[in-house]
Design brief:
Structural class: alpha/beta
CATH superfamily of the largest domain: Metal-dependent hydrolases
Radius of gyration: 23 Å
CATH class of the largest domain: Alpha Beta
Distance between the termini: 22 Å
Number of domains: 3
GO molecular function: hydrolase activity, acting on carbon-nitrogen (but not peptide) bonds
Strand content: 15-25%
CATH topology of the largest domain: TIM Barrel
Shape: globular
InterPro entries: Amidohydro_3, Metal-dep_hydrolase_composite, Metal_Hydrolase
Largest sheet: 8 strands, mixed
Organism: Plantibacter flavus
CATH architecture of the largest domain: Alpha-Beta Barrel
Number of strands: 21
Oligomer: single chain
Number of helices: 16
Pfam families: Amidohydro_3
Protein name: Amidohydrolase 3 domain-containing protein
Helix content: 25-40%
């Protein structure tokens, strides 16, 4: 690996420096103009340099494949979705293994609910599967359900475990070429991203090994394993943090366990029932996707093998139960999402040494849905400020494709609680910019650190929310190697 000298680079709030990179790490930092040239010399011209960005929660196959699905992200009603399906049928939209797929509807505020009859009335002779924006349910016709072996009720909607298992089977036949993942990794690098935490429900270690061998080398990948692959990972002797590929781009991540559903699907497991739902019904307060007993068994098994855990918990009941489980086991880990938390539970995250992995763009996407379905509780919803003030370690992510794989957007939403010109939503839950930046990186500008770097045309600390959201990235380096360079 050749040396690299970056001249006249300015860390945020600091004086310009020269940075010498050797063997993929920062070897020296000197005042600008004083370092001897070594290897390739690049004049950064006073641009801002910082640690490369991480996205702490992605589903890469879903992110890549969404471009082949009917775009439903701008729909606001069942009628809008059905119109989009009809247009797709008329224009011979591309299929996925014979399915006409759509992605991105959010029905939490629809005046009229989804119905099987309405979807059947589109008269498509194709199996139609429309995936919700949160990935936790799908609206499908009878042809699709029959092919997937699913039972439909009058809504035509299948949610949570049966749907997630069906989506995995669909994705196994998606036909995505290696270059699609390479292109997605390159696009992330253009936004200053050096690494992602992969939570796709598949053989992430095996598939990413192949993708890296086929040229997807712009990102570090921390790959999670779902419960059905836990035993195979243990048998392979892999522990959290172990390098999996010779280049050091792929590491073993955590066991991913999904304890409840989502807000938009009204399956997040809460202490209080959802408005308008019979309190005596089985799922009035949401869904317990994995029982607490099973969660404890899985975490104990993982802990004994040196595998840490990342547990999906969105509703306040789910968060309480997961906190209780971590506490009972004396185990540290990550809680993914932590969207609704009881006031007395914020401090428990910190006292137990747990990390909250949160997605600030979700707060902007879901603020109106939360105001309706978590009415009276939104002061503790997406409560990044409360978590930070309690001393909780934070990581920011996107949950791509649920929101874009672009950490600058997450940083902007975390610090402003605003988007699209709207007033800030619960501004008391904003994060300071330095905290949001720290929650988006894993290294620092210091001797001995990996040379995972981002160079921007603008200092983030001089930018307002909109400029943060569209931050111009001039270059990205991964282990001292340029993965993006625009100057």
């Amino acid at each position: 690996m050749t040396d690299l000298t970056l001249r006249n680079a300015r860390p945020s709030g600091g004086e310009p420096v020269d940075i010498l990179v050797r063997d993929g790490r920062i070897a020296e930092i000197r005042p600008a103009g004083t370092a001897p040239a070594s290897g390739e010399v690049v004049d950064v011209a006073g641009r801002t340099i910082g640690p490369g960005l991480w996205d702490a929660h992605v589903h890469m196959t879903q992110w890549v494949i969404q471009r082949r699905r009917i775009d439903l992200t701008e729909t606001a009603s069942a009628a809008d979705v059905l119109a989009a399906v009809r247009r797709a049928v008329d224009t011979d939209a591309p299929l996925t293994d014979g399915f006409l797929m759509g992605y991105g509807f959010r029905d939490g505020l629809w005046a009229q609910p989804a119905t099987l009859a309405a979807l059947e009335a589109t008269e498509s002779d194709l199996p139609v599967v429309l995936v919700s924006g949160d990935l936790h349910c799908a609206w499908m016709n009878t042809r699709a359900a029959r092919r997937l072996g699913l039972d439909l009720d009058a809504s035509g909607v299948v949610a949570e475990a049966p749907w997630i298992e069906a989506l995995q089977r669909i994705d196994q036949h998606s036909g995505l070429a290696a270059h699609a993942y390479r292109d997605a990794a390159d696009a992330a690098a253009r936004r200053g991203v050096v690494g992602v935490v992969e939570f796709e429900n598949t053989d992430n270690l095996g598939e990413w090994s192949e993708r890296i061998a086929n040229g997807a080398r712009s990102l570090r990948i921390e790959a999670a394993a779902w419960p059905d692959r836990l035993e195979s990972v243990i048998a392979a002797g892999l522990r959290t943090g172990d390098a999996v590929d010779p280049a050091g781009l792929l590491t073993m991540g955590r066991l991913k366990v999904v304890v409840d559903g989502s807000l938009n699907t009204r399956t997040a497991w809460c202490w209080d029932p959802y408005p308008g739902v019979d309190p005596s019904s089985a799922h009035a307060c949401g869904v317990e996707s994995v029982s607490v007993d099973e969660l404890r068994r899985l975490l104990e098994r993982a802990r004994g093998a040196g595998i840490e855990a990342a547990v999906h918990a969105i509703g306040d009941r789910a968060n309480t139960e997961v906190l209780d489980t971590f506490e009972a086991l004396g185990m540290r880990g990550v809680i993914e999402h932590a969207q609704l938390v009881r006031e007395q539970d914020f401090a428990r995250f910190a006292s137990l040494g747990l990390i909250a992995s949160v997605q600030p763009e979700h707060a902007m996407d879901d603020r109106d849905v939360a105001d309706r379905h978590w009415i009276g509780r939104t002061g503790r919803a997406f409560a990044f400020g409360s978590l930070h003030r309690a001393g909780v370690g934070l990581r920011l992510g996107s949950d791509a494709p649920v929101s874009p794989l672009d950490p600058w957007q997450a940083i902007a939403s975390a610090t402003s609680r605003s988007r699209d010109g709207r007033d800030a939503w619960h501004p008391e839950q904003r994060l300071p910019l330095d905290v949001a930046m720290e929650a988006s990186v894993r290294t620092s500008i210091a001797v001995g650190q990996p040379a995972d770097l981002v160079i921007t045309d603008l200092d983030p600390f001089d930018a307002d929310a909109e400029r943060l959201r569209s931050m111009p990235v001039a270059a990205t380096l991964l282990g001292g190697r340029f993965t993006w360079r625009a100057f």
